[in-house]
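Board notes (copied after class):
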Amino acid sequence: MTFKGSPTQGSRIMMKIAALLVTLASICLQTWSAHAVRSSLYPEDWAPEFTDGQGHFLHDFSYAGYHNGETVPPDTGALPLFDVVAGYGADNTGASDATTALQQAIDTAASANGGVVFLPAGTYRCDGALTVNASNVILRGEGETATFVYFTSVPSSAGTGHITFRGMVTRSNEALLAEDGQNRSFEVRVEDASGFAVGDDVAVGWVITDEFIAEHGMTGIWVSFNGQWKPFFRREIVAIDLVSLPNVITLDVPLRYPAKMQDGASLRREEGYLKECGVEAIALSNAVEKTAAWSQDQIHVLGMDGVKDSYICNVGSFQSPVADDTSEKHLQSSGIRVGGSKRVTVSNCRMEKAQNRGDGGNGYLYEVRYSSEILYRDSIAQDGRHNFIQNWDFGATGIVWLRCESTGSTAVTLFGSAEIPVRAYSEYHHSLSMACLVDSCVFGDGWATGNRGDWSSGAGHTATETALWNTKGLGEARIRSFNYAQGYVIGTEDIEVYVETDPTLGALHVGTAPNDFTEFIEGAKYLRPQSLYESQRNTRLGLPQAEEGEPPPSDFVLTYDGPATTITETGERLELIVEAQNSVDEVHYQWYLVGEGETLQPLPGATTNVLVFETVTPAHAGRYVCVATDAIGETRSPEITLQVKAQMPLSGATLCAFLLILAAILLIPSKRARAGA
C-alpha cells in the first residue's frame, strides 16, 4: 500500500512497527486462505446430502459399474470352459468362416446355465454375427494382442452389431407415486407396495408430458417421445415399509432428479435382464470395403442391451484384413454400445479408427443409451466421430467416465471419394442426461454439453447436474459446458473452458442459465481427491482414501507495505496496493468496502491489485479489503482503515503574515503608477 504525506522520523518508525504487526496478524489470521486443495463442494466431511449456500451440490456418483462398484468382476474358474477350436472346430487361421462354430459354443454355454466361451490365440473370420441371449456367458480370448476376431458383413438393419448380448426386459405391476420423488432420495412412496418384494428389479420413470417439456423450455423441441413413459432410474428394491402410509419403498441407488406426480411418475417391476455376462482379452474389428461401410448407419462391433452386473474388459480394435481403405481402419462405424442396462463396467479397452463418421449416428466408439450407473474406466478412444457419447432418448443417468482418453473426434462428410473433416467432441448428444460424471479424463478434442435444439430429432437440453472433474487437455482441447439448470467444471489443466457462450457454436448455451459452476480452473494437479468417483466410492464402502494430488505452493496470501490505518487529507490522491504471493495461474482481484455487520460491498471497477482514489473526500473514510482468486481458490487481505482529515485552518500568526504579504503585493503596482505620473 502507498500513501501521501511527509511523516516525521518517529512516525516512520511507528508505521513500520504497525506494518510488521499487521503482517504478522495476516499470517496468523488468514482463515480465508484458499489453498485447501479441496473443492468447496467436496469438503473433508462431505456427505451425499451436502449442499452449499447457493444450492450447489455434487451427486454421489459412486454407484456406477459392476454391482454398483462394490466388487470386481468375479472369478469365473467354476464355470465350464467351451474351447471353440478344440470343441467346435473353429478355424483360428482366418482362412474360413468361424461364425457357426463360435455360435454353437455360445449356445452350448447358454444351455449349461453359463460358461466361458474360450477363443485360443489366433485369427477368427466371421461372415455373420454372434448373439448371446443367456446369463453367465463369458467370451474370453488370450489377450487383445493374441486373439483376433473380424467380421466381414454389413448388417441389413441400422443400429445393429456383430456381437450382441441381448436381454428381453419387460415391465409390469405399475404403482403410481403417492408423493413426488425427491432428488437424491433413496425412497419412493406408493399407495400399495404389497405387489413388490425386496430384490425386485424396478424402474422409476414418468411420462414426457407437455408440462414436463414446458418446464424445461423445450416446447416444440422435445417431440420424438411426447406422451411416452420413460424409465429414468433402473434400480433394485432393498427394503419395503408396508406400515407407513403411503407405503415406502427403499432403492439401492438414489434418484437423480425429481420424479413428479404431475408427469405420472411411477414404479414398475422389471424382468428379463441378462446378468453376469462378460467379454475379455480379445481384439475385434468389423471394418469392410469403404463404400459398404458408408452404406449402413450405426453398426457397432460389440453391444450389450438389457444386461445388468456385467463387464467388458481388455478389449481392443485392430486393422481388419478385409478393410479396403486408403488408411488404417478398425471399425465399420461404431465400437462398444451399452443400452437399456444397469451396473455395467467397461474397462481397459481401446477402440479406434471408424470408417463411417458421417451423419446418422456413426462413429460412436463408446456409446451409452437409456441406461443407469454405467462405468467406463481406463479406456482409450481415437478417431471416431463422437468418441465417448450418450445418445438417443431420455434415461441416461449416473454414467461415469473415469481416466478415459479421447483424441481425434471428427465429423466427416463425403464428397465423392473425398472426406471433408470437421472437428467434433465427446458429448452428451440427446435428451437430458442426469447426474453423470467425467472424471480424470484427458481430451485432445474435448467434451460438449448443451442445448442442441432441433438437432438429432430434437435433442434439446442434453444434460443436467453433470460434472467434469480433473479434466486435462492435449493440443487445442475444449470444454463446452452448458447444463440445463446447473452443471459443474471442477479442476482443469491445459484445456479451454466455456460456460457462458462458445464463439464457435453459441446456440448451445440458450436456455441453460445460470452458468455452470467452475472451480480450480488450471489447478487440476492440486485438486484433491484426483478422482471424485473413487473417493466417493471409498467413502460409501468405508475404504481408505488415496493420498494423491500435488501439494500446492505455500499459502496464497495478499501482502501490503503500509499500516493498518492510513490517514490522509481531503483532496489528496491515494493508492492502496496489495501484492499476491504463491498464486497458481492468473489472479483476479475485487476490492470491497466493509459495511455494517461485516458485510462486503463490492466496489465497481475495483478489479486490480491497486485501489485508486483520485481525489479523496470524507465519504471515502471506512474499512477496505481485497479478495483475490487464483486457479485453486481465494484469499483475503487484512482490513485497511482509511481516515480522512479536513484541510487544517490557518493559525492567527500565519494569518497575519499572509495578510501583510498580500497587502504588499497589492500596494506595489499602485506606487509604481504614481511615480510614473
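Comment from the instructor: The CA atoms of residues 42 and 276 lie 34 Å apart. DSSP finds seven helices and 50 strands in the chain.
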